[in-house]
Write a structure and sequence with these properties.
heterodimer, A: 355 residues, alpha+beta, two-stranded antiparallel sheet, 12 helices, 44% helix, B: 163 residues, mainly alpha, two-stranded antiparallel ribbon, 52% helix
């Protein structure tokens, strides 16, 4: 298995081109589905896991919207390959940890993907740049219809789609946006703004979703419940909430344009530029924090040696698995931090890679 | 600034975590930060806490705790421990406690979203049959009452439905 080729391809969601991409990096929609004739993966035998994987791959092969998709058996992928797939948001950390009879189908430009035998038999995902939940849901739902033509999905008359965890029962839908809120963070307003969301049944999480750290003022905003409102209503609610956050973030950004605050902000942004263009050892967390400030500087149109597209790309490429993939081998933390610093320096100072 | 964990090295990593809408911030050195792992999905997750509190609140000990799924054999107690069901049949086997749980999690217990194409067509077929039966009855009554205008209207509706 060689996933290194994927480094050359651009993921749709990292492009700086979707609606409102200055604040909303990406949108993601996922549907949880199970096949009615098999136990859920957590309680299935190896035989039935294998049968589900085969059935899912076969159905994906017949699905027109997944034509040309790569079908990857995780048992054939190395630990590094799996980390790499996690960092590209194609599989979860959970799926990366267990590989036997697990798989993922990756569609064109990595927009559509299908995890097989994670917590549920099928986790169908659509991910793309900017605020585009409604459009993504249409695409994901169409693929879901295609797959449902081939596979009998577990469905309860009252409770909807049956999932392994009752938090997903109903629509099986999770819609989320990755938002960048550095100005609200600097103004100390981010907690207050996010606290209000829980009343709307919405949660804010770290970069890789459930149970992960918040770094560099990047937050995942998503629905907390799945039963009751229909898919359109959920998409609408999240979209409205994200538009609200976007407005608050932009208002706060525009308050930073004069006097002492501007000086403080300039200092932060140019310190980050200094670190990224000079430092020799940079951890991923540190890179995220500095790239976050550089993104903010770009918003003001300040003269910086990179554009938004490059920054988005670096947010992906500086992740531990990607750094190792670039090196072509597994590396210890120190070597990773060194290689990451070199990569960043090359982009920020135009320096050639050290031999 | 010194690391808040070991109080020796300089803090280089700012660790922010959002749990139940409480943001906790930690300033750590690189070594201590590495030791802090992403919390496990089960312990401390909302569903886990919910299941635990629900167990206290609603259950008469004994009956529900002895439940097991008729298809996959999952014990209700084990479900309560892990928060994960074993198979689609568990939804029927644990219907009663599950209804309560779904209500606690989602605030609702009726799905209003999309359904598999097969279910959707079966459902509209059923609805049509019921509607036809209802109209036939109305038609009978109308004819008996010699309300012929009404009867004609109902007959047209039936025709449209059966088309």
């Amino acid at each position: 298995m060689n996933l290194k080729n994927m480094l050359r391809y651009k993921m749709a969601w990292a492009r700086a081109e979707g609606p409102e991409h200055g604040v909303v990096l990406s949108s993601r929609v996922r549907l949880a589905r199970n096949l009615s004739e098999y136990p859920f993966p957590g309680r299935a035998t190896a035989d039935s896991l294998a049968a589900v994987l085969a059935a899912a791959f076969e159905a994906a092969g017949k699905s027109p919207s997944l034509s040309g998709a790569a079908r990857i058996r995780l048992a054939d992928a190395s630990a590094l390959d799996r980390t790499f797939l996690v960092e590209r948001h194609l599989i979860s950390t959970k799926l990366a940890a267990i590989s036997q009879h697990r798989g993922v189908v990756v569609g064109e430009a990595e927009v559509l993907s299908l995890m097989v035998n994670e917590e549920d038999h099928l986790r169908l995902q659509g991910i793309s740049s900017g605020l585009c939940l409604a459009d993504l849901f249409r695409r994901v739902s169409a693929t879901d219809d295609e797959l449902s033509g081939e596979l009998e999905m577990a469905f309860h008359t009252d409770w909807g789609y049956m999932t392994s965890c009752p938090t997903n029962t109903g629509t099986g839908l999770r819609a989320s946006c990755l938002v960048h809120l550095p100005a609200l963070g600097l103004a100390g307003l981010v907690n207050r703004v996010l606290d209000g969301l829980s009343r709307l049944g919405i949660v804010a999480r770290g970069l890789y979703g459930e149970g992960t750290k918040v770094m560099g003022d990047f937050y995942q905003i998503s629905n907390a419940t799945a039963l009751g409102p229909n898919e359109g209503e959920v998409i609408e609610t999240i979209t409205r909430v994200v538009e609200g956050l976007l407005r608050r973030e932009n208002e706060t950004r525009s308050e930073f344009v004069s006097g002492e605050q501007k000086l403080r902000l300039e200092d932060l942004v140019y310190r980050s530029l200094g670190a990224l263009s000079q430092a020799r050892i940079v951890s991923f967390e540190e890179a995220m924090q500095h790239l976050s400030y550089i993104r903010l500087g770009l918003h003001y149109g300040w003269k910086l040696p990179v554009d938004l597209h490059t920054v988005n790309e670096l947010l992906v490429l500086t992740q531990p698995g990607h750094v190792q993939m670039l090196a072509g081998k597994e590396l210890g933390p120190q070597d990773r931090d060194f290689l990451r610093a070199t990569l960043l320096r090359r982009k920020f100072a135009g320096e050639r890679e050290a031999d | 600034m010194l690391c808040e964990q070991c109080h020796k090295a300089d803090a280089t990593v700012f660790f922010k975590q959002l749990l139940n809408n409480q943001v906790t911030e930690l300033r750590l050195c690189g070594d201590c930060a590495k030791k802090i792992e992403v919390p496990a999905l089960t312990s401390g997750s909302p569903i886990f806490d919910l299941l635990a509190s629900l167990a206290k609140a609603t259950e008469r000990p004994g009956k529900i705790e002895r439940l097991a799924c008729s298809r996959c054999g999952l014990q209700y107690l084990e479900f309560r421990r892990t928060g994960l069901l074993g198979c689609p049949q568990c939804y029927d086997s644990f219907a009663k406690p599950l209804e309560e749980l779904l209500k606690q999690i989602h605030g609702k217990t009726r799905h209003r979203g999309k359904m598999p194409p097969g279910v959707a067509s079966a459902r509209s077929e059923k609805r049509r049959t019921q509607e036809t039966a209802r109209l036939r009855k109305q038609l009978e009554t109308a004819v008996k009452d010699e309300a012929f205008e009404e009867a004609a209207r109902i007959r047209d509706m039936l025709k449209r439905l059966e088309k």
